[in-house]
Design brief:
Helix content: over 70%
Structural class: mainly alpha
Largest sheet: 2 strands, antiparallel
Radius of gyration: 23 Å
Strand order of the largest sheet: 1-2
Amino acid sequence: MTSLSNRFFTSAYFYNGQYNLLDMPMNDFQNEWVILHADIEKYERFSLFIKLFSVLVSVLCIAYFITAWVGLVVILILWLQDGIWKTFQKRMETRIIFIEKTLNEIKDSLSEANDNPIAFQYYTQWQNQRQGGMGLIKEYLTNSVKPTVAYPYAILITLILLYYQSAG
């Protein structure tokens, strides 16, 4: 660990007996963290596009009176594709948590008395503060009813209900 620690802080700035992590150039772990985090965000966007496409397919199936089984098969394929994207994303999150743990260990090995939080701990911190299944569901539902999130879905539901009411 010594060689890794030395490499990690080769050009770190030492101030008042402590390493200043904010003023040092990024090492390989930090570079990898930044790249993986950007990729995770890209996967999240693609997952959103899959969900939006699912909504579009549902609307088109209703609008063009496409048989229910065709729409169901397409939605199931898209759901599986979204699951595949989330699996790739989870693999990257596993690696990023390892990197965060390693960065914390390096920081701890250099300064036992330093209680300052270390950067690059986004995923580890979230994982440590996660509230369990029911807490996560509550968080999702709370965020889902915010106007900026509910806006397109509320309009879609209203349009579909109005359509079926006028057709029936």
